[in-house]
Amino acid sequence: MDLATFIESQRPRVTAAERRRENEEMLARYGQLFDPANIPNLTAEEFKSFLYLKNNKHWWGINRQSGLLTRDMDRLREALGILVDENKPLRERLETLFPKGRSGFLKGLGRAVATPILAVVYPEKYGVFNTKSEGALEYFELFPSFEQGAGFADRYIAVNAVLNRLAHKYDLALLELDEVFGWFAPDEEDLEDHEGDGPVQIEGETIESVQRFGLEKFLSDFLVYNWEKTSIGQRYELYEEDGDIAQEYPTPIGRIDLLARDRDNADWVVIELKRGRSSDVVVGQLLRYMGWAQENLAGEGEAVRGVVIAGDADDRLRYALKPLADKVTLLTYTVQFDVQEVRL
User: Which residues lie across from 310 on neighbouring strands?
Assistant: First the structure.
């Protein structure tokens, strides 16, 4: 199927009167919230509300780093102020937030969050550059080519030009085009919004930095939020791509739970969370992702290691991993609850 045919197949869905009304309401709410004049007064609760699909109506999963993003609200407000300041060239703003070859301005602020904010503040000017739009543009052979080592600013400006050209050609708003690309490769995962936090003990370390913890379902979110406080975080550094932390990292063969680099030698580390899955499934997925990373990510002299994190080391899992002991590490975690009486 070519792009024109696919767009026409989705046009009734994305241009329906009810859908356009939802978009207008969302743009009115969050366009005002992220207006440069309002950024200095932005609260954590207001910002977090935007990250949930039920409110933004378009983007699932961008709430994963909400805890990281709102941990330092002054820094977040400063970053957002830079992002939406049209008095400065877009390239200058993006190079400040996403400097080439260095850590981003704010941990957790990547393209998956930054470009939707640009899109709601300036919907006639900026499109969304995320995994889905990139995948669709690549499939239809419309993704721009870049010089090796091009920074995010270069890539977004080029991609945004393509998105604007397509929106004009097919008489769609940029948000409608974004939704078309979303339907091109819809997620098959559970889209339920969630927040994960709580007192948990991982590898013998009690961490009290959050208030609720969603058990195994939200273990990934908890680990990302508290990464530097765990022993695994002392050894490995979470990989970032365009400022996005490699959580549920997309590959052509599935999503890697967490992707990291060894702090000592820069080897790649594929981390899979057991989360109720069978031992055979987890080990099979881990090996598949390790093979993909070795072929597609690892450079000359770089190895790929694996880590499985499970609630307990049952025999099935231990025996499955035993022949891989030189390449795979098995970690376990425990969850602790505390109940306190409240004096009435």
Answer: 332
Structural domain spans, the chain? 3-184, 200-335
Structure-block tokens of residue 87: 């008095």
Specify whether the CB–CB gap between 328 and 286 falls below 8 A. Answer: yes
292 touches 284 (CB < 8 A): no
Query: CB-side exposure of 64: number of CA atoms within 13 Å?
Result: 26
- The CATH number corresponding to 200-335 among 2.40.10.240, 3.40.1350.10, 3.10.290.10, 3.90.1200.10 equals 3.40.1350.10
Residue 134 has φ and ψ, to the nearest 5°, of -65, -45
Q: What is the pLDDT of residue 60?
A: 87
The answer to pTM > 0.85 is no
Please give the pLDDT value at position 173: 97
Phi-psi region at 311: left, alpha or beta (left = phi > 0; alpha = psi -120 to 50): alpha
